[in-house]
Structure formats: structure tokens, C-alpha cells
Amino acid sequence: MKTPAMLAVIACALAIAGCATPTSGARPWYSLSDESFSPIKAGAAKTEVERLVGAPMLISKYAGPQEEVWTYQHLAGARMYVTDVVFGSDGRVKQMGQYPDPAFTNNVSSP
Q: What are phi and psi of 94, to 5 degrees?
């Protein structure tokens, strides 16, 4: 009876430890800036992007245009921004876009 309980405790401990461990190559958003993304040019490989700015916060895959978008959150001055790096079907940078993070943008007008 003690063995299943002990295995459950060990499994829970490993699961919690896994949640606390950052993804390999991930850099925290506060360590990234506009300058972090400036060396990334069209045609760069995924490995090069990951070497320069780390693993993305989010990866989105689109079947229609066969694109993959890596999304990063970072600071630009005192404001929070999002940078999307779009990879084509060949796995190379097709384009990049940056915009204010909607989660931190106040669109509420005062009376």
C-alpha cells in the first residue's frame, strides 16, 4: 500500500518541478528589447532566431499559408510590446511585426 502512495508523491513532485523549470533557451521578457530583434533579418533560420532572442512565448502554426509565427513579449522603453517573427514553409524568417501588447494598452477613455 505504501508503494503506490509514494509513487504518487514522487510524480507530483516531478510535475511541480517541471512547471518551475523554464523552457530550454527561453529568455525572460524583461531581458529583451527592440535591439534584441534588430539583428534578425529576412531569410534567417529558426536556430539563428532562437540563438539571438531565445525560445518564443507562443508558437502559432497556420496550415493554409504554411507559416509558423513565433511571438515574443518585451519592453520598448517603458511600454510592453509584442514582436511576431513569421517563418515561411522553408523554416526561414519571412517577415517580422511589432505592436503594443494589447494586455497592457489602456483603451479606456476618461469622461
A: -100, -45
- C-alpha distances (whole Å) from 17 to each of 8, 44, 56 are 14, 34, 21
Using the structure block, give the residue that is written with the C-alpha cell 501588447.
101
Integer Cα distance of 68 and 12 in angstroms: 33
Model-level pTM? 0.71
Query: CA 64, CA 82: separation in Å to the nearest integer?
Result: 23
Determine how β-strand 93-100 pairs with β-strand 79-87: antiparallel
- What are the average pLDDT values for consecutive 10-residue runs of the chain, which has 111 residues? 53 42 64 92 96 94 93 89 96 96 69 51
Domains of the chain in sequence order? 26-104 (3.30.1450.10)
Residue 45 has what DSSP assignment? Answer: B
